[in-house]
């Protein structure tokens, strides 16, 4: 097996995040469920965008955020995701490349507009998301770059993109290419509602070892095994998965295999500003250590550091140098 040309290649929804601060009454006026994520059409996206205050536009999407985090921690990252050849598509491509991520997926010349996620952040740090998926959902196996997949130590798949049949086929094709090259495949379950829609299919991916490494939070894990008891769900996960990472917010995180559970505490923060991207950056930190061959506890601590840092700022792209922070903490050299 040849040496990897990328440490982590992520595949997911290519979305431009538009973040703005808002009071609770703005959410109520537009019928939003605080703290939730609603899928909206292009017309509602335009209406909400017009009602938002001054905001920040930056390339986003769960897997793209993870790729940017991996790059910020000094590892080699790539991303595959679909945009349209429009204004926001240009923003997406510029931002993700500027973050040090290899990105070359061709933009669609026609069809739905580039996806955007309108994120309203209330004074308590909670984020309410309104997502128009647009062109991101049009990813197909033809958009894959087989050489990138073959060269990536880990190909990381975003559960949010399991909805469109063509994207699902692209995921399975990428997993086959990766395994054919002797590489590993990871999956993030993304959201408990996503798990509810595709529980049987996600379990099949894990049990057949189409996926080698699973990322999930406590709510997603409980949804996967349809239980309210965390320990019961964890026992089931250890039976099914080769490797898994489970995050539990302030309770810390664990790396689990059939033979062991390794846990670390959360990194304390003085003030939570915005929880957008916490899980994405945790995965980035873990994978930045994992692809360096570090032990599970250290990988978890890098993940916790990255997640703890990202929730102290607005947005899911780190504003401070994560590599320097990890070095200062003695986690990376």
Automatic annotation (TrEMBL):
Enzyme Commission (EC) number: 2.7.1.20
CDD domains reported for this sequence: adenosine_kinase (cd01168)
Gene3D superfamilies: 3.40.1190.20
Record flagged with keyword Transferase: yes
InterPro entries: Carb_kinase_PfkB-like, Carboh/pur_kinase_PfkB_CS, PfkB_dom, Ribokinase-like
Keywords: Kinase, Transferase
Domain Carbohydrate kinase PfkB: 58-317
The keyword Transferase is annotated on this UniProt entry: yes
Top enzyme category: transferase
An annotated Gene Ontology molecular function: adenosine kinase activity
Any single Pfam family the record assigns to this protein: PfkB
Family membership: Belongs to the carbohydrate kinase PfkB family.
Protein name: Adenosine kinase
Taxonomy of the source species: Bacteria, Pseudomonadati, Pseudomonadota, Alphaproteobacteria, Hyphomicrobiales
